[in-house]
Specification:
Layout (H helix, E strand, L loop, with lengths): L4 E4 L1 H5 L8 H12 L3 E4 L21 E3 L4 E3 L6 E4 L4 H14 L2 E6 L2 E4 L4 H10 L3 E3 L3 H7 L3 E5 L2 H13 L5 E7 L2 E6 L4 H12 L6 E5 L5 H6 L2 E4 L5 H6 L2 E2 L7 H9 L2
Parallel strand pairs: 1-2, 1-12, 7-8, 12-13, 13-14
Antiparallel strand pairs: 3-4, 4-5, 6-7, 6-9, 9-11, 10-11
Helix pairs in contact: 2-10, 3-5
């Protein structure tokens, strides 16, 4: 298969634990682009949280952020797609999150609002490159527009909350885990898989000619939508089982191996 586009998750896939891209991965991406193929990012991060990696993205190629809720071309600033949550859904999730005792983050048009300030929240804010605002009244934010809502808690509690929400879902929403500590809620039409389809359509590439690489459960829809879904060696076991190929870990230049094997 002549694969023409590679969409990569960031955390645990493109970058190492120190938040950097290895020289080998950078070199492989450069070769891919010189071969006339496209590279882009697909992440749960907000737009601002991907800024330090945008030099890797091919020209006029959209980036998938907020798990697919926002898709834009970073070089032109053109908004390709945005699907915000229904205000009633946002307010219900905030209410349920408070009842569950979870830390909460509300992303409103790429601004970050948190239910409280903690070390975990401050680290999340630094990693995403966005200042932290305190969530007080969620009503104005819900009316203004919300990309996604996050609950943060211990993995056992997150798993239990996810199971409960599967039985009694909040209308017009979907959710996934981006790490064992985080539940991410978006509009029900949003996923990285739908985002990949929109990026391919924009670029004139059949989705069957795309590769998607990731490591967490929020990447599954994208891996299944792509012509080839690749799990990192450090991926969640469910992601590995459902991927078409398992590469090396993000610390071992796994993404470079994918590019060399399938795109050059």
């Amino acid at each position: 298969m002549n694969y023409k586009l590679l969409a990569s998750d960031i955390d645990g896939t493109l970058i190492r634990r120190d938040q950097t891209v290895s020289p080998a991965v950078r070199e492989a991406i450069d070769k891919l682009k010189r071969a006339g193929k496209r590279f882009t990012l697909a992440t749960g991060r907000p737009v601002g949280g991907v800024s330090r990696y945008l030099d890797l993205v091919s020209p006029d190629t959209p980036v998938i952020s907020h798990n697919g809720a926002t898709i834009l071309c970073p070089d032109s600033g053109r908004l390709v797609y945005q699907r915000l949550m229904e205000p009633e859904s946002v307010l219900r999730l905030v209410e349920l999150g408070r009842e569950a005792g979870a830390l909460m983050i509300v992303w409103s048009l790429d601004e970050m609002y948190s239910s409280e300030v903690s070390g975990q929240i401050e680290e999340y804010s630094r990693r995403n490159g966005e200042p932290l605002h305190l969530l007080q009244d969620p009503v104005p934010l819900a009316k203004r527009g919300v990309n996604k809502v996050l609950w943060l808690d211990e993995p056992v509690k997150i798993a239990a909350d996810g199971a409960a929400l599967t039985r009694e879902p909040v209308e017009e929403t979907c959710f996934c885990t981006s790490t064992p500590h985080i539940l991410e809620f978006m509009h029900r039409e949003v996923s990285k898989g739908e985002g990949l389809r929109k990026v391919c359509e924009y670029c004139g590439v059949d989705v069957s000619a795309s590769i998607a690489a990731g490591d967490q459960l929020n990447d599954l829809a994208m891996l299944e939508a792509a012509g080839l879904g690749v799990a990192m060696g450090n991926a969640h076991e469910d992601v590995k089982r459902r991927a078409g190929f398992v590469t090396d870990t993000n610390e071992e230049d796994g993404l470079a191996r994918v590019i060399e094997k399938y795109m050059l």
